[in-house]
Design a protein that fits this description.
By secondary structure, this protein is α/β, with parallel strands linked by helices. Helices cover about 45% and strands about 10% of the residues.
């Protein structure tokens, strides 16, 4: 199941999984008409995805999808969480409002989706959270904050408190003084990357032996609506790391709880270096 997949990278991930995954692939979208239109286009090329409505900002919508998957299949084998948003650099929205909305969709939406769908993950499941090069820990200016994020024992509640601290300071216009970057998107994706590490650690402790793997990926700078069609990579190239992580073979020990670059390299999320700027 691929979130936010009626266009762009998400659509390209669905296309690839339809060809490579031995099972049903769900394209999801907030807007049912756009979702069905995307499915119809893929069917014209011989692919056969299924559709289900999903709004990651709406817990009721997530639960409806969860119940459908549970009742139809008994569980979920692959989750690629691609849905997300970013304000344009030209946006006139107050920075505090941008922080609130971006965190709600990109970070809290990821939390809510995970809380509802992780209980139905089956043995051998693969989870992929689409992060960004902007989600690398080095994007956080403060060493004190970086130390908190990189603490190997950080809990999800502690991470959530950190992210909400950013929102509080952003609303007060004091985020820079508190050591945060001047980018709501960066903080939201750092949160997603950190959450991935926490989730893998938790799964290993609570469901060890079930071969469930969670990774985050940087798809690259891709030619999509979100990038203003300025990226040099095609959506198909941007889908590569997500598909790679979604189809990690059974019994693999790596990558696991990792941060994966668009060329499928595993990158040290705390220290880097990254293979490229984008």
């Amino acid at each position: 199941m691929v979130t936010g997949s009626n266009k762009g990278i998400g659509l390209a991930i669905v296309k690839s999984l339809c060809s490579k995954f031995d099972g049903d692939v769900y394209l999801t979208a907030r807007d049912e008409a756009r979702g069905h239109a995307a499915v119809d286009e893929l069917k014209k090329s011989g692919l056969n995805p299924k559709f289900h409505q999903l709004d990651v900002d709406n817990v009721a919508s997530i639960r409806t999808l969860r119940d459908h998957l549970k009742n139809t299949y008994g569980g979920l084998d692959v989750l690629v969480h691609n849905a997300g948003m970013a304000f344009s650099t030209k946006s006139t929205e107050p920075f505090g409002k941008q922080a609130e909305l971006t965190i709600r969709t990109n970070f809290t939406g990821t939390q809510n989706l995970s809380h509802e769908l992780f209980p139905i993950l089956r043995r051998g499941a693969r989870v992929v959270h689409v992060s960004s090069c902007e989600g690398h820990l080095t994007k956080i200016p403060s060493q004190e904050l970086r130390d908190k994020f990189s603490n190997p024992d950080i809990t999800e509640s502690e991470l959530e408190s950190l992210i909400q601290d950013f929102v509080k300071h952003a609303k007060a216009g004091a985020h820079a003084e508190a050591g945060w970057p001047n980018s709501t998107y960066q903080v939201s994706k750092v949160g997603v990357s950190c959450l991935t590490r926490i989730q893998q650690r938790t799964i290993d402790a609570e469901r060890g032996g079930e071969d469930i793997i969670v990774n985050s990926v940087h798809p690259g700078w891709v030619d999509t609506d979100m990038s203003g069609h300025s990226g040099p990579l095609t959506p198909e190239e941007g889908a590569r790391s997500s598909v790679f992580a979604a189809l990690i073979p059974p019994g693999a020990t790596s990558p696991k709880g990792a941060y994966i670059w668009h060329d499928n390299q595993v990158v040290d999320w705390v220290k880097g270096p990254t293979p490229s700027a984008y």
